[in-house]
Amino acid sequence: MIRYFAKRLAMMLVALFMIILLTFVIEHSIPGGPFTSDRKVSPEVEAALNAKYNLDDPLPKQFLSYLLGVIQGDFGPSYEYTGKEVTDFIRNGFPVSAKLGGITILFVIITSIPMGILAAVKNGKWQDMLIMAVATIGVTIPSFVIASLLIYVFSFRLNLLPTFGLDTWKGYILPVITLGGYSVSYLARQMRSSLLEVMGQDYIRTARAKGLSETKVIFKHALRNALIPVVTVIGPTIANLLTGSFVVEKIFAIPGLGVHFVNSVSQRDYTTIMGVTIFYATFLMAMVFLVDIFYCLIDPRIKYE
């Protein structure tokens, strides 16, 4: 077990290093720089800014300097906002995204899993067809279209919910539905297909032959094994939701981590792009690692050697 965890940790560190390297190379391969914009900064001022932030150093030296800072937990200063550190954006933006994401995760789990179970139990009936139709719509329609439709109906037409901000509990309703719509639809379909596959196994037929009720067969014998593929998907889904959605936060004017990333890309704020990317990648890999651990709790037959 210890060898497995050590191997996984080493793989995560290698993957994180490659992400840092690729992000650094890609953003520096784009013509121009963080101080090249429509504001027409004079060449003298631009040269002084590049010297201040060591952007006139060779790229290998810049990369090594940045990498040493990351190892020490320092993502550097923001090039766009004077006096602001990238860690300030993460420290202020992540709690907002995490709170919205946490509520969305609860909404996704308590909605998608029952939907998938009901669709599997009522396979081929009108309940199954209705749930799968809703799930197909949720998977195919982009989140910005869902957000626009919800704002038009519930804010402009019915005047029931606010269009931006998270000042009241009503402000969470539209962003949560928009942010969780795809995940609910996808997990419901995954839960249905996984449960249908498990229900066709021999041990389920044996349990039914023993005279067990259908409820016991589903929730005591089938559901636990059917959750394994769903848990595989839930791990990255949780990471995506907790770190914020770029589109949703931008549409609903939520000051989370996602909107900082969007602004940093448009402003070519290199350090903010790097910092948010590293934070997101680390969080995503950590969630996938936790999912692997949960496998042992869900299915005792799974052992890590």
UniProtKB/TrEMBL annotation:
Belongs to the binding-protein-dependent transport system permease family. This is ABC transporter permease. The chain crosses the membrane at residues 100-121, 130-152, 172-189, 226-248, 278-298. It is found in: Cell membrane. Its main location: membrane. One of its GO terms (biological process) is transmembrane transport. SUPFAM superfamilies: MetI-like. The keyword Transmembrane helix applies. PROSITE patterns: ABC_TM1. GO terms for cellular component: plasma membrane. It is a multi-pass membrane protein. Residues 94-295 form the ABC transmembrane type-1 domain. Keywords: Cell membrane, Membrane, Transmembrane, Transmembrane helix, Transport.
